[in-house]
Amino acid sequence: MSRPRQYSDQTRERAVRLFLQRIEGDERTERERLQTVADQLGMSRETVRRWVHQVEVEEGERLGVPTAAEVAELRRRNAELEATVQILKAATSFFARECDPQPLMSSPSSSTTASGSESHRSVGL
């Protein structure tokens, strides 16, 4: 099995650009266009197809596996959103305590009333 060739970024960009150029009236299939570009640049049709596919994925024209840079950006954004959620949870808890109409310490009269009403309910059952 032969070792895969390494092509420059310029070569990749040129291959994709040549493939994406559409001449009006060109009735060739995608496969034929891929083969034409590959023959012009001296590479395999599959190489050109993979490059075109990756460009379409990056531009959002086709579903596919995101690039490493996209994954890193999504992870960074996810961490930022998780931190924001934690801050909002803490703020919500703080403001809920501040706006609570009931005092933190219950008064002695309220505890006897509560226990008295409990005993009244049990007697009625």
How would you explain this protein's 3D organization?
This protein has 125 residues and is an all-alpha fold. The protein has 2 domains: 9-64, Orthogonal Bundle (Arc Repressor Mutant, subunit A); 66-101. 70% of the residues lie in helices and 0% in strands. The protein has 5 helices and no strands. 6% of the residues are buried. The model has no long low-confidence stretch (mean pLDDT 81).
Please name the defining characteristics of this protein.
125 residues; mainly alpha; Arc Repressor Mutant, subunit A; 2 domains; 5 helices; 70% helix; elongated
**Count of individual beta strands:** 0
Question: Would you state the CATH class of the largest domain?
Answer: Mainly Alpha
Tally of domains: 2
CATH superfamily of the largest domain: Winged helix-like DNA-binding domain superfamily/Winged helix DNA-binding domain
Q: Tell me about the biggest sheet? A: none
Assign an overall shape: elongated
Helix content: 55-70%
| Coarse structural class | mainly alpha
Average pLDDT works out at 81
Unreliable stretches (pLDDT < 50, length at least 5) are none
Task: Quickly give the CATH architecture of the largest domain.
Answer: Orthogonal Bundle
How many H/I helical runs? 5
Order of helices and strands: HHHHH
Strand content: under 5%
CATH topology heading of the largest domain: Arc Repressor Mutant, subunit A
User: What distance lies between the first and last C-alpha atoms, to the nearest angstrom?
Assistant: 87 Å
